[in-house]
Amino acid sequence: MMGGYVEGIIAILCINLIFAYGIYLTAASGQLNLGGAGFQAIGAYVAGVCSNYFELPIVFSVLGGILGAGLIGFLISFPVLRTRGVYMVLATFAFALVISGIILNSEFLGGATGMVVPAYAPVEVLIFSTFIIILIVFWLMASRVGLAMRAVHDDDVVSEIMGVNVKGIQVFAFTLGGALAGLSGALYAHHYSFIEAQYFNAVLSIFVLLFVLIGGTQTAWGPLFGASFFTLVPEILRLGDTEWRYVIFGILIVLMMIFRPQGVVTRTFVHRASKIFYRTAER
Amino acid sequence: MAVPILQINCITKFFGGLKVLEDVSFDLMPGQRFGLIGPNGAGKTTVFNLLSGVYSVDSGSVILANQDITNLPIRKRIGLGLSRSFQNIRLMPHLSVLENVMMGQHCQANRITEMIKPIGWTKNNRWRQRALETIKDAGLEVDLNSTVSELPYGVRKKIEVVRALMSKPSVLMLDEPAAGLNPQETIELAGFLRGISDSNVTLLLVEHDMNFIHAICEKVVVLNFGLKIFEGTPKEVNRNKAVLEAYLGTSAMESSGVT
Ligand SMILES: Nc1ncnc2c1ncn2[C@@H]1O[C@H](COP(=O)(O)OP(=O)(O)O)[C@@H](O)[C@H]1O
Ligand SMILES: [Mg+2]
């Protein structure tokens, strides 16, 4: 078996990756979702309730978390998509605050004391789920749906003229994105066996959007890099000098933003990297 | 008597208090090569925007192949055969050349299976093959994986024409396709467009280069301040007094003694 420390890092990496892919889907089609923690919380609490009150097996409670967050994503996409730019950021942010407020004030959900989730999902389940989600997102982004999402990101009017159902694509991205964030929450709940509203806070929403924007939204490699960087680098820095680790981490982020404003992994970057890869593979 | 493929009936458009088009009408016959010309600000691009649905008409109607499309949603129009390019290039800046061109095929992928099939993974995908063929026919020589925002103006202009062709349009509307091309490229483009028209695509061209119009168009409409001031052959247009006035200004004509 893996050591506890490594296993802990892998678990949080898996959760962050799935979470980041949820936010990535909306970002790839040109919408900024700063309500990530809200969707993750819905997934976690729906799974928690299914497991706690209805004693459903993990498969069904996780499925419940996915569907619950996806449904809420679908419903709020309509008002949210009426807004643009900074207003959309604020609308999604407000949504997450509302969710957090509802949980804190609900006795049924355990309020501020949190909720115990008895059924345990081992790290292998998290790894497997992450693997499947990465495959699905890569597949989706290689399809016409993915191409249309990226086209909408670049120019929604021209996309519409090209025959793209722009609104449909945006609702789809928001819904599926919500569902993935919900999945990450459900897995969190079952892996840590305890959830509380305070965990799903504004900083978490900001962090996951940062993973995605710094990783890059043009290809499905972006969140893979972004989430891994943000999860692993602080851990690596922890091994060295503790005093400076936040400073070094902060400087790295600022440098990436300055030198890679489109995100670290761009489409051109992937293209060039794959060329080099094939050239060395041929040798 | 053949039926027009596209009928524009008395369209009028206001922007705020400004009347940009007034009662403009003309018909395009199938396979015709049609030129829409006029001084800057005459309303040519606005005609394209009304036809493609970007703006709604204030009065009048647009009939495409016997179907009233005046108030049809924007995205439904390309599937009915109406395709266009843009005067100030509007390619997707973060997509590759090939991806931009393949966006032009979007309206043909009707089934859900076509939508979710990966198009980027296999080289012999039929969508990709057809895109490559059209790119080759158009004489577009460029790294298909480069991001379009890195490319020179003339190349991007050509990519727009190719993208507009990918939907297999019955009416192809090009807004100043030769702008920014050198003389050699302009001649090649004219040849290419004549070839397209021979395969029964109706062309509606907005262009400033009169040589280009003469080389391609069978018929022209001249707009001036939102009014149609002339409709006829390119030969006639050169002798028309109203057109000369519109282009040169009345005073210029008086001083040159044309009146
Ligand atoms: N979206 C708009 N809002 C306000 N005025 C516009 C808009 N689009 C075009 N116009 C005005 O309409 C007139 C015709 O423009 P346009 O159709 O672009 O002319 P052309 O393509 O013939 O040069 C111009 O006076 C222009 O300023
Ligand atoms: Mg114009």
Summarize, please.
The complex is a heterodimer of chains A (283) and B (259). Chain A has 283 residues and is mainly α. Helix content of chain A is 75%, strand content 1%.
Layout of helices and strands, plus pairs?
The complex is a heterodimer of chains A (283) and B (259).
Chain A: H1 4-28, H2 36-52, H3 58-80, H4 85-104, E1 115-116, H5 123-142, H6 144-154, H7 156-161, H8 166-192, E2 194-195, H9 202-215, H10 221-239, H11 245-259, H12 267-282
Antiparallel strand pairs in A: 1-2
Chain B: E1 6-15, E2 18-28, E3 33-37, H1 44-52, E4 59-64, E5 67-68, H2 74-77, E6 82-84, H3 97-103, H4 112-116, H5 126-137, H6 153-165, E7 171-175, H7 183-198, E8 202-206, H8 210-216, E9 219-224, E10 227-232, H9 234-237, H10 241-248, H11 250-256
Parallel strand pairs in B: 3-8, 3-9, 6-7, 7-8
Antiparallel strand pairs in B: 1-2, 1-4, 4-5, 9-10
Helix pairs in contact in B: 3-6, 10-11
The structure holds adenosine-5'-diphosphate and magnesium ion.
Residues 15, 20, 38, 40-46 of chain B line the site of adenosine-5'-diphosphate (ADP).
Structural description of this entry:
The complex is a heterodimer of chains A (283) and B (259). Chain A has helices at 4-28, 36-52, 58-80, 85-104, 123-142, 144-154, 156-161, 166-192, 202-215, 221-239, 245-259, 267-282, and strands at 115-116, 194-195. Chain A has 283 residues and is mostly helical. Chain A has a domain at 4-201: ABC transporter involved in vitamin B12 uptake, BtuC (Orthogonal Bundle), CATH 1.10.3470.10. In chain A, strands 1-2 form a two-stranded antiparallel ribbon. Chain A is globular and about 55 Å long. Chain A starts with a helix and ends with a helix. The mean pLDDT of chain A is 93. Chain B is of the alpha/beta class and 259 residues long. Chain B has a domain at 6-90 and 167-256: Rossmann fold (3-Layer(aba) Sandwich). Chain B contains eleven helices and ten strands. In chain B, the strands form two sheets. Chain B has a six-stranded mixed sheet with strand order 6-7-8-3-9-10, with helices on both faces. A four-stranded antiparallel sheet of chain B has the order 2-1-4-5, covered by helices on one side. The longest helix of chain B is centred in the last third of the chain and has 16 residues, at 183-198. Chains A and B meet through helix 5, helix 6, helix 7 and helix 12 of A and helix 2, helix 3 and helix 4 of B. Bound molecules: adenosine-5'-diphosphate (ADP) and magnesium ion. Magnesium ion is lined by residues 44-45, 87 of chain B. Adenosine-5'-diphosphate binds at residues 15, 20, 38, 40-46 of chain B.
